[in-house]
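Problem 12. The chain below contains 529 residues. Write out its predicted structure in token notation.
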Amino acid sequence: MSLSSPPQLVPYRDVVEFEGAIQHLLKNVSRMPLFLFFKKSRNIFKKDELGLEIAKIALPATLALAADPVASLIDTAFIGHIGPVELAAVGVSIAVFNQVSRITIFPLVSVTTSFVAEEDTIGKLNAEAQEDENLEKGFTTNKEMEELIHLVKSSSKMSSISSAYTQRSETEHERRHIPSASVAMVIGTVLGLIQALFLILAAKPILNYMGVKSDSPMIRPAQKYLTLRSIGAPSLLLSLSMQGIFRGFKDTKTPLYATVVGDLANVVLDPIFIFVFRMGVSGAAIAHVISQYLISLILLWKLIEKVDLLPPSFKDLQFDRFLKNGFLLMVRVIAVTFCVTLSASLAARQGSTTMAAFQICLQIWLATSLLADGLAVSAQTILASAFVKRDYDKARTTASHVLQLGFILGLVFSVTIMFGLPYGSRLFTTEVSVLQLISVTTPFIAVTQPINALAFIFDGINYGASDYAYSAYSMVAVAVISILCLFILSSTHGYIGIWIALSIYMILRSFAGFFRIGTGAGPWNFLRV
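Solution.
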């Protein structure tokens, strides 16, 4: 038997070429748009500049979003002591008010945040460019002004005038010219007035449509509360438009302070008007309206210090841009609202027990949105600024970072709900039949939490990239498929079928976001370079 020939050594040049090919392949893979979702995942909790910027925006925004539900819960507790009829009547009125408001609030705040962030960034870039130009030309205006003020200050007779002049100059220098801020406030006020008139004049027919008939004991307190609460609609939409402006400035602390002060006022005034003055549901509505106008006044006072709200020319107000993109987002909101409302309607048709379980589970299922919305706000603001600067590296890193944080947030909620809901559900009800349905729903609620978080954050990412058309059209497509699934699955699988359809709905929402970025389409085409 002949000995086998010794193995042939691979030439060193071939090894180098192979290693180079592998490195080139890995480099190309890392540049693929889909790789964005895994970019720098090891540094997700690193306290770098971007991480701190996201936290600085997201945490106050989350607290502000949480303040209203807490105040509403306390508000409901006070009203509950009046009587069950009044509590039910106010519940229907609040549902009507919130549904009408939602259609206008969400587009207004989202569009305002992006547009203000873009214009503020452009203003800063122009100021920096002007400063560089002045330095290049050798201007010494600032130095001469400092010397002039120093000479004026040296005179005891003119010291007070100099101080006043300096303060006025600093104030004028700090105030920004942001046309979108003025447009947002005008549109917010007009929409608020329209909403107020609509709800006041059509209160009774709307309540009849909601099932509160003219002979119902709920009709009088419901109509009274809805009419009085509607007086606060202009202040509500104005305050939310101003919140969008502050978000565009990456300032979420000011809206938080204003919201907390307003909600505390509501909590303090509720028992005074309801029990001391014996005004019942009218007192609760008046207390809420006063709190809304207080929030608006605080925000307006702070905004005047930052923004010149009177533009030099009417031409600076781009109403058409606002209305066009606002309309697209309104279409999206209607599609979202219709899906959720339809699911509730299908659950209600299966009986009061099913509806009670569904309502509890739906609120818990959507709880992630409260915290995920804080991340969505930070993503929208930072991305809007980055796209204006064409800082695509920061846009890529920001999107990756908030999506990874959102996914982890969803996992935390998933584990918490899976192990906590079987025990925590008894806080909502003691009915055995309702508790059984909640236990059946728990896996759906828990498993879909990461998907829900990503869906909400993708909304903020799309708005930050000014991708409003895709957000609207993709949501309409998702809604059409989800509505078909709701009808089919609810008829074949009952209550469980509704939750299967809702899970499909959120999966499709998340997929729409993944598809847009993962394929490098639209404003994300720079990912393919």
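Discussion. Residues 81-136+174-317 form one domain. Students who got a different answer should revisit the alignment rule from Section 12.3.
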